[in-house]
């Protein structure tokens, strides 16, 4: 990372793509022997084009398209009933959001779907009960701190980071080329609740992403979809190159590439 980018990390600055990618590079060094996947550069998320992850555990920092970073994770947690087995049988992704939004962001959901690439009809997104930022610019630092905690085998839901030291610590890590534990203010200990809420999302097509997804238009406009008359699966127009006449003519019978 350049000296200019490092100097741009001020007490009230928002972390940009270069900062997050530099931190992800250091996190990847920490997981070489841990069989933890993901941690891709964040540009893949612009159109929810993250590669599918084949490892049981993975982590990914995602931008929600609205000046906010979150951490997505898979394979790390017990649910509220301490039932890990049933939890892992479901296609579930966990979101650590330092603003604790009470609504699933469409771009984040699409990114999670691209990473998980489930063959099931639905995936579950669970939002974790983690420490909340008290300003409008610490989301990126928290996402990195949450990821580092998980890599070290800790549950961020039980941790309270020292917000006065987070940025100084991140800058020192970027300068030294090694990511280390972020300073804690206290250990929260087990809580009665680790998940704020969960939502189920239908996924479709060969891309296994939601209906509200467009490769060419991002998340601003839903892409046209067509149903195959043989397998009854729905497909995005761009994903399988559905002819324009399918959408212009009523009652036309269209078959997906697998059924032709």
Describe the structure.
- By secondary structure, the protein is an alpha+beta fold.
- The protein has a single domain, classed as Adenoviral Proteinase, Chain (3-Layer(aba) Sandwich).
- Helices cover 26% and strands 19% of the residues.
- The chain is built from eight helices and ten strands.
- Strands 1-2-3-4-5-8 form a six-stranded mixed sheet, with helices on both faces. The chain has a two-stranded antiparallel ribbon with strand order 6-7.
- A hairpin with a 5-residue loop joins β2 (57-63) and β3 (69-74).
- The chain is elongated and about 60 Å long.
List the helices and strands and how they pair.
Blueprint: H1 3-7, H2 17-30, E1 36-38, E2 57-63, E3 69-74, H3 84-89, E4 92-96, H4 106-116, E5 122-128, H5 139-151, E6 159-161, H6 166-176, E7 184-187, E8 195-202, E9 225-227, E10 234-236, H7 237-240, H8 245-248
Parallel strand pairs: 1-2, 4-5
Antiparallel strand pairs: 2-3, 3-4, 5-8, 6-7, 9-10
Helix pairs in contact: 2-5
